[in-house]
Amino acid sequence: MPPTPALPPSLWAATAEPAPATPPLSGEARADVAVIGGGFTGLSAALHLAELGKDVLLLEAGEPGWGASGRNGGQVIPGTKYPPDDLANLLGGEIGTRAAAFAETTADILFSIVERHRIACHARRSGWIKAAHSEATLKRLGLAAAQRQRMGASIELLDRRRIAELLGATSYSYVGGLLDHRGGSLQPLSYARGLARAAIAQGARIHGGSNAQSIIQDGKGWRVVTPVGVVRADRILIATNAYTDGLWPRLRRTVIPMSSVQIATPPLDESLRQEILPQGHVMSDTRRLLLYFRLDPAGRLVFGGRGGVLEMGMQQAYAAVKRTMRRMFPMLATVPIEYAWSGHVAITPDAIPHVWQLAPNAFAALGYNGHGVAMATSLGQRLAHFIATQREEELPLPIQPLRPIPLHALRWPAVAAAVQYHRLMDALGK
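The structure corresponding to this sequence follows.
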């Protein structure tokens, strides 16, 4: 049996709550639903399926939270990249209206799950700042804020002076932004482990070190084969996001995985903590190759940005993020970097997640475009209700036949060119 992939070193791995026991699957098992992938989508789906009385078994190649769910910035951001009206128009009809309403509730759903299951993950609803790097993007933020305010969201616009006060980045020129009080932060690996622990408490079976090697139709159901085990299930859900491999033909061709890199300082002294994000907000900006940062509970500055395509040039990406952090916060010029790590983000051409009907009783959900903490959790909950009831009205997104990205094999040079183009557009303030 191949060894379980080790959890990559990171700040989150060093400070997370202990992991629950998730032994590898051995022998044969039976379940109503087999979930493949132990990130936020799969764990949330398993938890809520178990709450609905379904016998659910989750397979994870590493351990729960091994992938992007345990490596991301831990920012809880409501919505998608689209303002509500734009998302509704993009999808059209009743499903568009449903999707837009759902997207604006994702942070509420996540924090309610944390509270209900008493998940120890340093969850804090301190608010999320979206910083505008140009007048054009500030105008777009204003329009988006107005739409969300009409839906009852607690959002305020920030001018140049106010955003500098809230970020502490007075030497870095953001022209303004918005503060969305619905957002916040958490320790992402602790959260993933907490979801796993809650799912197990509800009766779900979770098996780490159990890489799904093949899926075979078995009458009206499915048989999923791992290195030393087999599970037979009536229905399957694949929730592997940017770590999707060749398990299901063509599924990995529906997303483009890109790296997101992060660094973290040691705990800052009190004077610096009062200067940087003094009110404890989390922040991301409007660049196409965005920057994001926050303080962890110990006062470390966690600073991240988009890298490149997978692991290409990661050392250069770490160095670039460190230079940007010190340019934004000159007072950190001599502060060392304690941790550096990366994970993969699944990008879709239309910048929204997708729910795919792979075959009868076989589904996949992936493609969060950097908004996965709240969205993946919430979509996992809704997928559970859909799978349990088979009512499509339970889904906030359309369920579609699998549709790979055209010319996906050419993604590497295309994405590399797109990264350079986005850098140019960001520099021009577009």
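The first strand starts at residue 27 and ends at 36.
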